[in-house]
């Protein structure tokens, strides 16, 4: 079993800036949820895994969908099973406790050790969802009226909540969280990220792929800019395909790994072939300013 550690300092497979490490440690020290926002692919979900691994705790993941209700995280009362058992089974259906199924928050509270609880993509649920969680997250307990029981956290879990959307979360909810925005990594940090995934990657291939990637991201008006996950897949595709680094910025091989929208595809290729490609602009102003 892993030994629990007091502070988070990142892990060998996850690059965490010092700011991010501080936010994680402050939120755990204060016993407040850490709300992580950032573009898709900026490592929000992976952060929770890294905290669990780095601090020697188990991870419980509550994936939020548009239909998820706050109460689902606490428990559900399985009336269907109880009805079934009462008609066809030989169980004693009078003890309702057998039909209480704990959700991820319930499990985290009942765990006999401190765990990391990831509430992933909270913005997928309806607007009431965050507020409906407030009370239980504050007091770390909830009642089950059907059985008259109260579930209390044995150990306050480290709660990580992620959100992709621009849309604002309710003020009352924000007040109770420590907030951290993960900015899109700059090229230096991105190189480190790629390196932890592909330590043996040829340096020249990495340089060329990064140049092309940030050039694409700098094109105005793209519907969906490629993110870290797409870059990682692309680098792998380039390696497997045996693409020579010199070809990367000229031909953008396997562009479909990076770009997923028809219009963006057209826009990138048009730029590439219109004399506004990377070759010419690399000596001029503007387009490679992010690089
Ligand atoms: N800081 C980082 N260190 C290592 N890998 C990262 C980092 N940020 C993103 N990644 C990688 O990028 C991909 C997307 O990360 P993910 O956590 O799913 O992003 P998000 O949840 O923000 O959409 C994963 O493969 C992850 O390993
Ligand atoms: Mg995610």
Question: Can you summarize this structure?
Answer:
This protein is α/β, with parallel strands linked by helices. The chain is built from 14 helices and 9 strands.
Record the SSE blueprint.
Elements (H helix, E strand, L loop, with lengths): L17 H13 L3 E4 L6 H12 L3 E5 L6 H5 E3 L1 H10 L11 E3 L1 H7 L5 E5 L8 H11 L1 E4 L4 E4 L5 E6 L7 H5 L2 E4 L5 H11 L5 H15 L10 H13 L4 H7 L3 H4 L3 H12 L4 H4 L10
Parallel strand pairs: 1-8, 1-9, 2-5, 5-8
Antiparallel strand pairs: 3-4, 6-7
Question: Would you mind describing this structure in some detail?
Answer:
The chain folds into two domains: 18-181, Rossmann fold, CATH 3.40.50.300; 187-281. A five-stranded parallel beta sheet has the order 2-5-8-1-9, sandwiched between helices. A two-stranded antiparallel sheet has the order 3-4. Helices cover 44% and strands 13% of the residues. Helix 8 packs across helix 9 (203-217). The chain is built from 14 helices and nine strands. The protein is α/β, with parallel strands linked by helices. Adenosine-5'-diphosphate binds at residues 14-15, 38, 40-46, 193, 196, 228-229, 232.
